[in-house]
User: What shape does this take?
Amino acid sequence: MVARKRMKTDGAPQGAQAVLRALRLLKSFHRGQPERSLADLAAEHGLTRTTTHRLLAALESEGLVARSADSGAYRLGPATLALGVEALHSHGLRNRVRPLLERLALATGETATFEVLHDGMVLIVDEVPGPHVLSSAGHVGTRWPLHATSTGKVLLAFQGAAPRELRRPLAAFTRTTITDPDTLERELARVRDRGYATVIGELEEGFNAVAVPVRDAFGEVAGALSLGGSNARLGRRELTQLAASLQDALRDAEA
Assistant: This one.
């Protein structure tokens, strides 16, 4: 028997509970589970099948979810793609960073990305691939764990203390992934001291990356700029050099 996880809507304005429930259903779809059944969604969110079906029908009427004719399972609909494109075009910081990504990818030959914190993970908002792209390279919309990425470390280091969930044992993706919360805290302190973060095969064997913080108009860290590629090209010395290139590019853009 599946234990139900009751949706929390306490404190929501009167009449907003249905909206919150529908939005949380939308967030249930991700790359690992692109299709979800009615029964799974109802059980996950602690809703009756009747309520879940009613909410999904409303989302389907607006094109936000679609149902498979074969399996009857639900997936994100075409309207979410349109919303995503509009969100990217309206993201002011992304628009400012885009020319930097293009210049950095051209100058270094490595993939340049701009990433932000979203739902406890790091989200790729924009990316310009270099000529040497590993199969593991992400794409716009990809989300990665904070503790195993250079951008995630930057956002953890400069956007306040590590979230509570990072204080318990962390998932290992390779033999070099930091899995001890205390070790991660020490690593974040080093990131703050030197102004950049690196990963050496911590998300995937053979992939190294470096990232620096990107500040908004108020001087607050709002994202991270990253360069990453094969460890055959990017050793520790090369990552340090790329960190300086990233920092110089940001200073030039702000001048």
Q: What stands out?
A: Residues 1-7, 9-14 have pLDDT under 50 and may be disordered. Residues 236-254 form the longest helix (19 residues).
